[in-house]
Every structure is written in C-alpha cells, then in structure tokens.
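Milestone 3.1: sequence recovery, worked example.
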C-alpha cells in the first residue's frame, strides 16, 4: 500500500533523494491517491497521454525508418528511462520521479527530429524541444504534473541543471542512451563501421553498445554515490565528450543522414505556410489554447508524428486519383 511505500522512501532512499512527500506539488490541487505517490501518478499520467503514443512515429535520428530495428523517439525514451532507473536505484534516489521525468523528457520533439525543430525555429523565431515538452504536459495535455517532474523535463538538456538529482540522472542517461544507440543505428544504416570509432575511446568505454552503456552507467554511479551531485569521473567524462563530438561529425552531420532532411524541412515549411494561410484547417484544440495563429501552428506541427505530417501534406498537396467503382 501507499503507506508502506512512503515508509520505504523514508527509510531506504538517500538523504539526497527527492521524497514524494516533500513535493512542491501541482498547480491545481487534487485529491491524494490511495495507492500511488504523487510521482507515480505523474509517471502514469505521462504514459497514458496521446503525446506519448505519438512518439512511436517520431524520428530519433533516421527519418521515418523503414526498418523495424531503428530507434524511434519512443524506443529512445524507453531506453533512457531504463538507464536512468538503473542509476537512480543504485544511488538510492527516487526511481518513480526519475521514471516520470524520463518518460516525459522528449514529448515536445517535432516530427523529423532536429530538422523539424529548425523549421519551427525559423518560422516562429524561437523553438526549443525541451520547452515544448513542458508546454505539452502543462498546456496541451493539461497533465497538471508536480513541480519536480516539470522541472526535470524542462531542464534535461546538456548544460542545464535540474533542481533534483533525479532530473540530473535523466539528463546524463539521455546522453548515454542516444550516443550508444545511435552508433548501432548508424552502423545498421551503413553510415558508420564499428571500426571507425577511435580506439582511444573504446579503450576506456569498451567495444559494443552493451559494454559502453555498462561502463558509463557504472562510472556515473561510482562518481555520484553518497554525494549531492550527479557526475562522472574525469577520464570517462572526457571520452564520452569525445564520442559525442565524433558522433556529431560522423553521424548527425553526415551527408547521408542529412540528404532526406532537406525534404523534411521543405515539407514542414510548406505545411507551416499552408496553415498560416488556412487557419480554418488547424484543429480546434490548438485554437482554444492560444489566439495567436503562429502559436497554434507551432503546437500543431510540433505534435505531429512523421507519418501524420506526411499524411497531412499528401492530403493537401498530392492529387488523389479516383478509385475504380465495382
Ligand atoms: Mg532524449
């Protein structure tokens, strides 16, 4: 029962963990749940949202991948969550808070990954996916989450510092997850060969995805155990930074990965202009949120999955032939 779990948090979590009983709470007060703590409720609210289900058809790195084995935003999110829970549990932090933040961190990602983000930034003057993630849970889905979950979602990017250690665990787990799984996807796509990864990096982090995740996770745990911060050893941190740089040069910025991106940018740009000229075609839901048509289009397009964006584009711009009548 919930009482047992609250006692567990009190007795077994680290002094630096965020106990659910100490939450700063929600914008709108709600009746306590008889079974779940506030962070467990937030995790469930995110998991049951429409925006969460849309992650399955949103690009991680490779656009609308034809193969079932490439990551999507959904599988990326699940991998981040699992890594973050492992670290959180080992550090005796609040695993429920960690899980809720991790499940929600990428809800604001646009279709077609960072290409979509760039289009919305160019069209509206400002767009950041972490800010949009918070907008999704607060304003679009109206999930009324706790302060700590909202803070972790908003501040999950490199260079930001969430107020809770659980939020910081998610931030570092996000990087561990994408760097390691994007290598695997890049090899699958033929952009990279395992042998291309500099041996100096593999000497420290190990060969293969499993080994790399294992060394990074264990290093974070070792460097952060019993401390009021989440960090890595200098040696491993340096190699991870080198791996990140390598991935940016060889994969994220590669000509092959970028080729299809241009088409995605063009398509989303055309969609944006179309809805600007035809606000009547923007779903009512978005118009009830803001009177500003630019904000409506931004929320609508940011929420689209790759598939949905293609479908809407095709319904407005590709002529439909007549079917045979039987
Ligand atoms: Mg992420």
């Amino acid at each position: 029962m919930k009482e047992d779990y609250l006692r567990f948090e009190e007795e077994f979590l680290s002094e630096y963990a965020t106990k659910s009983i100490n939450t700063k709470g929600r914008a709108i007060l709600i009746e306590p749940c008889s079974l779940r703590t506030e962070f467990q409720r937030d995790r469930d609210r995110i998991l049951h949202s429409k925006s969460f289900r849309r992650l399955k058809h949103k690009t991680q790195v490779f656009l609308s991948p034809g193969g079932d084995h490439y990551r999507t935003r959904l599988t990326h999110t699940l991998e981040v969550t699992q890594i973050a829970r492992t670290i959180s549990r080992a550090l005796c932090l609040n695993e429920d808070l960690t899980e809720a933040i991790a499940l929600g961190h990428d809800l604001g990602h646009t279709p077609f990954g960072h290409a979509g983000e760039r289009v919305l930034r160019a069209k509206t003057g400002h767009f950041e996916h972490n800010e949009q993630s918070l907008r999704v849970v607060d304003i679009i889905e109206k999930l009324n989450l706790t302060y700590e979950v909202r803070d972790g979602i908003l501040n999950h990017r490199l260079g930001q510092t969430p107020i809770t250690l659980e939020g910081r665990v998610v931030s570092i787990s996000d990087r561990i997850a994408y760097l390691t799984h994007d290598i695997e996807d890049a090899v699958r796509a033929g952009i990279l060969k395992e042998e291309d990864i500099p041996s100096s990096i593999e000497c420290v982090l190990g060969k293969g995805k499993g080994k790399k995740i294992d060394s990074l996770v264990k290093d974070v745990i070792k460097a952060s155990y019993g401390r009021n911060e989440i960090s890595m050893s200098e040696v491993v941190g340096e190699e991870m930074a080198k791996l990140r740089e390598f991935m940016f040069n060889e994969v994220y910025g590669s000509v092959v990965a970028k080729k299809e991106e241009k088409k995605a940018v063009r398509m989303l740009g055309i969609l944006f202009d179309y809805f600007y000229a035809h606000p009547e075609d923007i779903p009512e839901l978005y118009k009830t949120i803001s009177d500003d048509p630019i904000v409506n289009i931004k929320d609508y397009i940011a929420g689209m999955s790759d598939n949905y964006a293609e479908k809407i584009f095709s319904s407005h711009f590709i002529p439909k032939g007549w079917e045979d009548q039987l």
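The mean pLDDT is 94. The first helix runs from residue 2 to 12.
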